[in-house]
Design goal:
about 350 residues; Rossmann fold; 8-stranded mixed sheet; globular; two-stranded antiparallel sheet
Length: about 350
């Protein structure tokens, strides 16, 4: 199913006069057609932590049609920092039960559905059934192996996928939009009639292929601009988590193993040695002790960018992320790497 074609769905819902008034500023920004696509979109968001909270807020306020929130955990004290849907008195209650009413209050025009289920305990067949009628999937704070598994299910259903989350001061976003058509500025020349646009197409990569991307053909200048140290620290944390049955590094003594994992990934990828041969030890030390924790500012940046790119993909009016973004909260800088894409 395409993002821009209702496919087997019933006839698209048209924006009413009241909705037009509510979304007036957005319609002026990206057009009625793009807003109409958002209005008819169903998005599934998994794992209700800090990144998801920020993402949900923004896409609901923007006026998607339906939101499906999937999470089976109880509210914990550590959720109260970055999860602004939760209050002190909510600790011990189911996240989705607590959050549903507060999400609905953001925009009563959006239908909110909640599912209490563990993604790890959900079979591929049950996941496919859950995603029936879903136009886009957003996994947040999910381990790499589960992201790859869900990516496979989504590809079989031709459903676009975003994965985003934070590891302490680091944040990441990956997207697989399959074959994505969008409107882009025409850079072929200057027209006396003003800026023109053209239809563009981007072919995205499966997450597993993106993580195995060879960097050997990337020039020294391009490699330096991409900031591979942050990217391979994120990938190293994912690998550490996979090797430890889902457990993230939490102690200073975990730094040595994380360092070896990340540096092995750098070497295996063929990163330009004039730019990076090993991850800076200071960055590894910080990651090893903060990866399991959430910091509100980092969640706000990553969740906000994740929501923005989801809306770009739905509206098809701008160039979306291609295809791996990393944010370093220590420097405030973000970088995008084009991995395994033509």
């Amino acid at each position: 199913m395409s993002l821009h074609d209702p496919g087997s769905k019933s006839a698209p819902v048209l924006i009413t006069e009241d909705e037009g008034a509510l979304y007036d500023r957005q319609i002026r920004l990206w057009g009625l057609e793009a807003q109409q696509r958002m209005r008819n979109a169903t998005i599934a968001v998994f794992t209700l932590r800090g990144t998801a909270t920020e993402t949900i807020k923004n896409i609901v306020l923007a006026g998607i049609g339906k939101l499906v929130v999937v999470d089976d955990s109880d509210v914990a004290e550590e959720d109260l920092g970055a999860g602004f849907f939760f209050r002190d008195e909510d600790v011990g209650k189911k996240r989705v039960d607590v959050a549903r009413g507060r999400i609905e209050s953001l925009n009563p025009l959006v239908t909110v559905q909640t599912e209490q289920r563990s993604l790890l305990a959900t079979s591929d067949a049950d996941l496919a059934a859950l995603l029936e009628g879903v136009d886009l999937v957003c996994l947040t704070d999910t381990d790499r192996d589960t992201c790859i598994r869900v990516n496979k299910v989504c590809r079989e259903r031709s459903t676009p996928l975003y994965c985003g989350g934070t590891f302490g001061m680091l944040g990441y976003i990956f997207c697989d939009l399959l074959v994505h058509e969008y409107i882009a500025p025409d850079r072929s020349g200057v027209s006396k009639d003003g800026p023109k646009t053209v239809k563009a197409t981007a072919t995205y990569a499966f997450l597993d292929a993106a993580l195995k991307h060879s960097w050997s053909s990337i020039s020294r200048r391009q490699t330096r601009e991409i900031n591979p140290a942050a990217i391979f620290t994120v990938q190293g944390i994912w690998e550490y988590q996979s090797l430890h049955q889902g457990i993230l590094p939490t102690e200073p003594e975990h730094a040595d193993e994380l360092e070896k994992i990340a540096n092995d990934l750098v070497e295996r990828a063929g990163v330009n040695g004039q730019v990076l041969t090993t991850i800076p030890r200071e960055q590894i030390d910080v990651a090893a002790t903060t990866a399991a924790h959430e910091f509100s500012p980092v969640c706000a940046v990553v969740g906000g960018m994740l929501a923005q790119d989801i809306l770009k993909a739905l509206g098809a009016r701008e160039t979306p992320l291609a295809n791996f973004f990393v944010f370093d909260g220590a420097t405030g800088a973000g970088t995008v790497a084009r991995l395994a894409m033509p």
